[in-house]
Write a structure and sequence with these properties.
The protein is of the alpha/beta class and about 600 residues long. Helices cover about 35% and strands about 20% of the residues. The chain contains 20 helices and 26 strands. An eight-stranded antiparallel β-sheet has the order 3-2-4-1-10-9-11-14, covered by helices on one side. Strands 5-6-7-8-12-13 form a six-stranded antiparallel β-sheet, covered by helices on one side. The longest helix has 22 residues. The two termini are about 30 Å apart. Bound molecules: 6-O-phosphono-alpha-D-glucopyranose.
Length: about 600
Amino acid sequence: MCGIVGYIGNRDGAALVLEALKRLEYRGYDSAGLATVSDGKLTVAKAAGRIAALEARLDGNLPKGSLAIAHTRWATHGVPNEANAHPHTDGDGTIALVHNGIIENAATLRKRLRERGHTFRSDTDTEVLAHLISELYTDFLEDAVISALHMIEGTYGIAVVSDRDPDTLVAARMGSPILIGVGEGENFVASDAAALLEHTRSVVYLDDGEVAVLRADGYQILDLETAKVDKPVTTIEWDRQTVERGGYRHFMLKEIMEQPASIRDTLRGRLLREQGTARLGGLRMSDDDLLEIERVVITACGTSWHAALIGEYLLEELARLPVEVEYASEFRYRNPILDDKTLVIGISQSGETADTLAALQEAKQRGARTIGIVNVVGSTIARETGAGIYIHAGPEVGVASTKAFTCQLVALALLTLRIGRLRSLSVLQGRDIVAALEALPGQVEAVLAKADAVEVLAKEFASSPNALYLGRGYNFPVALEGALKLKEISYVHAEGYPAAEMKHGPIALIDELMPVVVVAPRDAVYQKIVSNVQEVKARSGRVIAIVTDGDDEITSLADHTISIPKTIDPLTPVLSVLPLQLLAYHIAVQRGCDVDKPRNLAKSVTVE
Ligand code: G6P
């Protein structure tokens, strides 16, 4: 989620890594920093905000040195301020480290290091690793790094330098990408090839458990047992923009395909399997606080509002709490009834949507408790609420929200589990939900593997000027979201409806030209929706159905089906929305639309 760049050679390292870092700024931009080693001295500079803020801070006085590392951060732990920005150093300031990923046993290690006299300056897990390397450092930097990596649990892509070893740059990977750029008399490290294309197109991708030791005139790859590993050098053929998009044609497709990873990130460290519940430290609410809640209001806009609707079904069914969902723009101008027993949840990917922010401010003023379900760490809504759940979906660039939506659903499921276990769910029920959540990323992967089949469907339906989306229960909001996706990026008129409502109006629209997308996994309302499909077919509508693997009833009625794996009813939306995202995407591409920047829309709506 963050960007890493490193350089060793004979050029001016700081200027080079800063420029290269700008190529990764789309990945994260809440703080930036760099470190150089020159004349046996390590210098670190960092600033909150974008790379431009760091440049302004340095005001042309870049630290010297032809060994440098740099980082642009998308915060996952700790607020995005200067202290938490990377690089992090050890106590003596002899080691500097940049890190992507999460060290899960950081708290335990921090405690042990404190007992040995280390003092920490930030809230980050990364600083712990810098101290650990320093603790283990005797002769060679790479040996200290490898020893430290044996002691940590979690994920990392790192680059490390030390003024005790001014001719070495060490990088390593476990679950977070790192590659080496191979030059002549110089070598590079980056988390993404996009950063290096101006300097080299020859790269070596590290695999998990590999460590790279770079010097100006060569490099070595080792495994964690220090055995040498031979790796092929790959030549990058893509242009820079394609590389930034991870090889995908559009950010939207990249973000759709990232969902197994983004959902894993939402879940990371939060499931308590034995107790059948979730750990949500950011809520800042004790069991007693949570038990005091008598009513929930969820407020949001756009796609986040659709997530809110699913949140209502989740919290009412599983936590037995009454929930209302409000468009933020309406809520803020009503005269809502709120008190200190009402929990108001604002959902926002960007954390900057003006109406959602104002709705939360209004709720707070009226004495309600407020929390945010937000993607952008340190955003205005996150700061305004001061408590909540970060979804950790990573930067979402495509204007049409995709991975943020599924991560919002997962965050709402975690919240439901946490509150539900205090009120109505047994430990066994809690464990079933935990198991279903754990299975989700793999199931998402299985659905996304059907992308080609959805593309074929899109070709057939791309010229239709209208579409109707139907769903029931948990999948009614999915129908709304599917229709919104299509409208937003392909400019096709689409409407989402609860399937049974169709007969009260929209059924008049159905003829042999009307595509009807029916979201019909095998859940509690399956039999009901079978009848709705029959109603559409009786009027010659063309049905595309999203069904559960192995389904035969709707499959025999529908013109086309895409199947999703079986999960518990409350989690079906996370899977059933995926084909709808892909369908909208491919229809928009077929129609020649600017998928990532649809007309008239903005990613973050900071005006009323
Ligand atoms: C805009 C975007 C939508 C998004 C909505 C809410 O309209 O185009 O994709 O769903 O804002 O944004 P938020 O950042 O608050 O989730």
